Amino acid sequence: MKNLTFTLLLFFSVSAFAQNADDLQKQLDTAKNPCVKVNLYTAIAANLIQFAQPKTREVTYADAGKAVDYVLKAIHINSGDGDYFALRTDYDMLSQAYFIQKKYTQAKWFALQSSNTSRNLGEKANIINSLLQLATIKMAIKDYKLAQQDLDEAMQIAKDSYNLLLQIEIEHSMAVLYDKSGNVKQAIAMQKHYSMLIANLKKAQMPSITVVAAAKTKQQPKPKVKAQIVANTPRKTLSMQYSNPLESKLNIENGIWVVKD
Predict the structure, then answer these.
(1) Is the C-alpha dihedral spanning 53, 57, 61, 62 positive or negative?
(2) How many domains does the chain have?
(3) Containing domain of residue 75, as a range?
């Protein structure tokens, strides 16, 4: 039943993608205005590689290749207009498309173009995103030392700009890096730290009424338990809980944990 449900969901997502792509292509076929065309080029490319959107299907090499063709057409128009903000997005999409095709040299080159453009525009968040992309590419080619340098720089920028959301994303990438490079203890520690940051962020975003209600619940007196019952109840100490260290082989990148006691 689960396999059938998954198959149906996959079928509907692929069907919706095909319909959306066809609609965009029909609009492009009749478009004459360059501004309309460039927007359709990037929209079709983003749709093909699921750029900056939830992943609902597997992106094929062919899809990535088509995306490259569309983005290169967009770059031709955007560079002529001197639209550096649009060019930066074009570079990001090309880097992602080439990465999907495992063309890491091209992927890295366009990630660097995105980084340089973002630095010239003073866009700290996009500088961080390009550094994350560069680190991902370098991890793929097992250049872990340089990937660490990119993540360290990204972390410094995130802390200087007080961007907690990006700090969490960087720490996730660091956990992936430590896992891939065989530093399991560091990977676990980093995963725990960014999980704590996520939990604290959720608490900070709770409505004040919920916080007050939770505080009142904590203040309610607990019913007294007879001493004899407590005495006969086995107590699990902290030393019992953590006496056996965890040995872990992680796959944090794909959200998979294989932990054995």
Answers:
(1) negative
(2) 1
(3) 17-122
At 217-261, the pLDDT tens digits run: 656 555 554 433 333 333 333 333 323 333 334 445 544 333 333
CB-based contacts of 133-140 (< 8 A; 24+ apart in sequence): 133/92, 133/95, 133/96, 133/99, 133/107, 134/108, 135/173, 135/177, 136/99, 136/173, 137/95, 137/99, 137/104, 137/107, 137/108, 137/111, 138/108, 139/176, 139/177, 139/180, 140/99, 140/102, 140/104
State the pTM of this model. 0.71
Inter-CA distances, 213 with 207, 217, 218, 224, Å: 10, 6, 9, 23
Three-state secondary structure call for residue 114: helix
CATH number of the domain residue 117 falls in: 1.25.40.10
Residue 25 lies in a domain: yes
Q: What is the pLDDT of residue 171?
A: 96
pLDDT of residue 5: 37
Site of tokens 């965890």: 246
Closest CA to 138 of 193, 88, 95: 95
Distance between CA atoms of 127 and 119, rounded to whole angstroms?
6
The three-class DSSP label of residue 10 is helix
Which two three-digit tokens encode residue 190?
Answer: 């980093």
Q: At what angle do helices 164-180 and 124-140 cross, to 10 degrees?
A: 10
Cβ proximity of 40 and 14 under 8 Å: no
40 in a structural domain: yes
65: buried, middle or exposed (CB in 10 Å: 19+, 13-18, 0-12)? Answer: middle
**Distance (Å, rounded) from C-alpha 19 to C-alpha 37?**
19
Residue for token pair 């090309």: 94
pLDDT at 43 over 50: yes
